[in-house]
Amino acid sequence: MKIDRRFFIRKVLAVGVLLALPRILFAARPDKAFAATDGDEAMATLFGETPVASDRVVLKIPEIAENGAVVPVTISTDLENVESISVVVAKNPTPLAASFALGPRSVANVSVRIKMGESSQVLAVVKAGGKHYSTSKDVKVTIGGCGG
Amino acid sequence: MIKVFVIILVATGLLATQPVSAGPERDLQAMQDFYQKRFPNVAPEEFANGLYAFDEGAREQWLELEDFPPYEIAVEEGEGYFNTPFANGNSYADCFENNGLSIKQNYPYFDSDTSKVVTLELAINQCREENGEQPLPYLRGELTAISAYMAYTSRGNTINVQVPNDNPKALAAYEAGKQFYYSRRGQLNFACSSCHVQVVGLSLRADPISTTVGQVTHFPAYRTVWGEIVTLHRRFVECNAQVRARPFESQSDEYRNLEYFLTYMSNGFELNGPSSRR
Amino acid sequence: MGKPIKIRAKMKGDIAEVKALMPHEMEAGFRRDPATNERVPAHYITDVVAEHNGDVVFTAYWGPAVSKNPFVSFSFLGAAVGDTINLHWKDNKGDSSATEAVFK
Prior knowledge:
The complex is a heterotrimer of chains A (148), B (278) and C (104). Chain B is mostly helical.
């Protein structure tokens, strides 16, 4: 029987990490990018480059948000070797809303619900194979008659 | 002569928009016919989904929320409260038929002993008091969660509110609720019916207006603008405040009668609460 | 200790799909308390980590613009019915929560 060495090493490493840091496995959050008050600044801090527009990044978000407090967002891509997926709301006070770190077993399809302070461009940025790709949509946030 | 004829025609056409004493059954029929005519392309059961019956974009977002809705937190909390015995060893289940499960379709009802409308929230607090517990506040928190859990166990049951023919006081309570629905109030001088009947199909700013029939099926409701689950009476308070009228108290006679009328107008609909709304 | 996470873990063919709802205020820190007019301090989940068989399969970093009672869904390969998924979160005040669920 052949032993899958890579799997074995990973297993040992995983157990090691578990012993060293019981339960909590949080890696470093990009705090500086989350603090940025400008969308370009947030992206420059997080990505170190301007993402290239790509129709292989699929952003599903309503054109007219029913309520800015809860806007459903789904981002997916067929790009290979996806490392991360991020959501940037250009006009929010702190534009970086969320960033998801994916691993080798991940399927690049993530959903989250976000807040939008006002109508804004929303960008989805995918890091794949060391490069950044993005797609964007303009989302209107309406004022409700009874809800607002 | 022609003029008189025209006036009669107009008056007949407005039957559904004006309070007339025709009895609950005929009121309900007139109301259902009115909306059917107004929205010939909307399946009648869709009115239970409020503005999502009309607005495609909003409906899609609503369905995404309903995929894993925030009110599930309240339902779970409510189940916990519901199953926690009182200090005397009894529990909510002992106060209600069928152990309190799958019974919301029977509320509100007219209690002939007290000659008052009894809502589910009121019955929950009555249950507490009968067992030596303090009543819970009505607007938010524990009581709303318990009500949400009880509504959840009643999903799919058909609303069947009764206004007994042989009890003039019950009919009076129904008529009082109906009167409330059609009475203008507040600085904006709006009645409930000003929006929900007369201009239904249009929008208040960005919100399409929900119909009177099917309006109460989904309570308690999680409102994303408030970020919490709320009772029907809290919605009444908000509606009254929005037309700049002084709201009544939760579970006041006014709101209990209004709930009686309004729930009767949803007779035949399936309960689908809790639900999420903007 | 934060409230438990509500998790739905489902196998769809060979794709393991996880949906989670986390009871949390997600206070952005911009709002004033109407009673006191004091600014309500920011209080939000900053990190979410998902583990399967000792592997971190998903990490979410969040700012205050994720909605109250956050929802997230993600998918990965290499799991089977009966496997366990562990979710943890921590927030900017040092609070945390951890919940596990089994794939159906």
